[in-house]
Amino acid sequence: MIETPESEGKNKQFVFGRDGTMRIIENGMVVRDSEFYMEAYENSFGLKVVETGARLVVSFKADTLIVSNPVFGDANYFIRK
Length: 81
What we know:
1 helix, 7-stranded antiparallel β-sheet, mainly beta, 5% helix
């Protein structure tokens, strides 16, 4: 099943600052402020959220951005139009 902002009724933004801060905004409301840092891997990079200890792995394949959560074994695919 393909989920889109329209089908889910959500608009979610991740805003990353040059100072290592991250803000998650959902439907215009800030739902989380945290700090982050990046980890480099062979074919991808990791995003580590300091506040929660969560780690996301980000990789690219052609026109697709893949964000996966190794702990839960799931992934989200974002395809450029």
